[in-house]
Amino acid sequence: DYYFNRAISYMEAIEDFANHAKAQLMLLVYEEGPHGRAATLVGQAINIPTVALQHGTLSGPYIPAYYFTRVRKGEDNSERLDCPIPSITAVFGEQTKNMLTNVSAYPENSVKVVGMPSLDISQKLLRENRIDIAYKALKLDSSKPIVLVVSQPFLTNADKHYFMSNIFEASQKNKMIRWVIKLHPSESGKEWKDLFKTMQGNVDVSFV
User: Fold this and answer.
1) 12-23 tens-digit pLDDT
2) In 10 A of CB 171, how many CB atoms?
3) Hey, what's the torsion of the CAs at 148, 152, 154, 159, to 10 degrees?
């Protein structure tokens, strides 16, 4: 209900902009959020196709933002209040496509596997067993053990600071470890870098 009310409030502005810009297509990077749902509804109403880009890995098929028993696409003229989905949803791989089309109710032809551009080259090298070249592509040292930290948005700055501080403290226990911080798409990495600079100690860290 919270997202529904916000989505409705954005629709007029999105429609005005789309008409003014004579938009031929709307590209969505957060289609499950209120702005994305609003853009999807507007696209369906004024016949502008929408394409959603997967921006994170789905932890399972029953995530409320993606699991539906029925969906509504642009060609559906019924009065049902099913969840609107984009014309096309572009996903990283077959696993995500199967979640959406075989468990959720996305039509088969609405989900396209396009890969994950930021890691496609490295994954290809790993499949070809070109390990050293893959490490170089990721700017990592293959001689060191690696710890991957997957960051997420936090409800408060205090929560985020607590999380980052704990990662920093852990990094000081073994200086032979390379730390890789996988930033959430909403993060620039500045807060992480600022905190690491102000705290005493050295960290072998990279941000991706």
Assistant:
1) 999 999 999 999
2) 21
3) 0
